[in-house]
Amino acid sequence: MMQMNDATKLLEELNDRSREVFRRVVESYLASGEPVGSRTLTRSLSEKVSAATIRNVMQDLEFLGLLGSPHISAGRVPTQMGLRMFVDGFLEVRDLNPMDREKIDATMSRSNSADVGGLLDRVGAALSGVTHGASLVLAPKHEAEIRHIEFVSLAADRALVVLVLADGHVENRLFTPPPGQTPSSMREAANFLNTLIEGRTLSEAREVIRTEIAARRQEIDSLAREMVESGFAVWDEGAGDSARLIVRGRSNLLAEDGFGEELERIRTLFDDLERKRDIEQFLDLTEEGEGVRIFIGSENKLFSLSGSSLVVSPYMNADRKIIGAVGVIGPTRLNYGRIVPIVDYTAQLVGKMISDRS
């Protein structure tokens, strides 16, 4: 990603005329999606200059890598680096539009106070509806403390692991136990686990169990040890699935005017998202702390193939821990000034409501 200090340094190298031409080109492109020509700019610049002068300035900006020529026409569009510099150095983020706020608030007020999943589904629908783009919502993992674990034999090659959490939530999964398991070895395995995991979250328990098995390998009956390792691996392997990615508004993005030639790449992006690839990385996008972050094109590998932009913000629980994220994805000519406050407000509202519920 082009860092803020890089954008500032490049901005300092531009004179006032170059800055204004660059800003006008980007703003016009973001509004229309069309290449911008010198004759168009001569009518909007504060300084009266000829089209030939504007063409020379645009050529200089193209040499710097800030503008590009998509076709043989004289019009220019901002490059990815140019968009990054615009976002870092020129973007004016507006206050949240009262109508947008009203729509988002209305979505939250209709939610069932006990149904976080339903709330986040509606958040995704509201974001895509308000922004006319595609929305992404990463639901929080279920990290309640564990109360009890139990293994239930169903057949010689099938068993059930049941996990009871302190908040009353119960999860169970089928798995294939190691050969030779008996009811007593299953009880022994469950007893061993229950002495270690009570009062711990799943992620905390996983590390404790690995350490204990390594330290007490000789003390644990071989059958029980295999059962512990096999049974808990079910939760280990499936842990990522508990972070649910909600995608809404796919049709909005596919129908975007001027974006038709990118349809196949956009379809690939959504296929990846729906198969839940790189979901954990989606949350990692927000690892630098609070606030909205903007990723343009290949600045993030999840969106590099489609050339899309992502505006994303984390939301936090009552302990100020990042537990999920909300975002809007669209073509690189997103209306960033409008989208940023929408995403920021939605993330803060979701965090507050989840904190209130817990």
TrEMBL record:
<protein>
    <recommendedName>
        <fullName>Heat-inducible transcription repressor HrcA</fullName>
    </recommendedName>
</protein>
<comment type="similarity">
    <text>Belongs to the HrcA family.</text>
</comment>
<keyword id="KW-0804">Transcription</keyword>
<feature type="domain" description="Heat-inducible transcription repressor HrcA C-terminal">
    <location>
        <begin position="119"/>
        <end position="340"/>
    </location>
</feature>
<dbReference type="InterPro" id="IPR029016">
    <property type="entry name" value="GAF-like_dom_sf"/>
</dbReference>
<dbReference type="Pfam" id="PF01628">
    <property type="entry name" value="HrcA"/>
</dbReference>
<dbReference type="InterPro" id="IPR023120">
    <property type="entry name" value="WHTH_transcript_rep_HrcA_IDD"/>
</dbReference>
<dbReference type="InterPro" id="IPR002571">
    <property type="entry name" value="HrcA"/>
</dbReference>
<keyword id="KW-0346">Stress response</keyword>
<dbReference type="InterPro" id="IPR036388">
    <property type="entry name" value="WH-like_DNA-bd_sf"/>
</dbReference>
<dbReference type="InterPro" id="IPR036390">
    <property type="entry name" value="WH_DNA-bd_sf"/>
</dbReference>
<keyword id="KW-0678">Repressor</keyword>
<keyword id="KW-0805">Transcription regulation</keyword>
<comment type="function">
    <text>Negative regulator of class I heat shock genes (grpE-dnaK-dnaJ and groELS operons). Prevents heat-shock induction of these operons.</text>
</comment>
<dbReference type="GO" id="GO:0045892">
    <property type="term" value="P:negative regulation of DNA-templated transcription"/>
</dbReference>
<dbReference type="InterPro" id="IPR021153">
    <property type="entry name" value="HrcA_C"/>
</dbReference>
<dbReference type="GO" id="GO:0003677">
    <property type="term" value="F:DNA binding"/>
</dbReference>
